[in-house]
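Lab notebook, bench 4. Still working through the backlog of constructs that have no structural model yet. Next entry is a single chain of 88 residues. Request: give me the structure tokens for it.
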Amino acid sequence: MQIDGALVREQGVEFAIVIVKPHVINTQAAADSARDGFASIGDFSGLSIVLAAQDSQGVFTYQGRPDIVDFLAHIDASRIPWKRYLIS
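Model written out:
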């Protein structure tokens, strides 16, 4: 399995972002379930995980810790160090 995401350290806060399908962030239960699953990934363990979904125009919507979501909403997604993670 592979996921697209990023590890970010900004203003002394380290967190992970994972790209998901838009329906995952539509309900809190689905978002929490996804976040719990991603928390077991070694690089993401112990970090706040923000979920990111793109609409048909490529615009991101973020779901997670409010201060991180607010920060991400104000930056261009091209500044995020995206990477493909292979999960076994």
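Notes after review: Helices lie at 28-38, 66-73. The mean pLDDT is 93. Flag for follow-up if needed.
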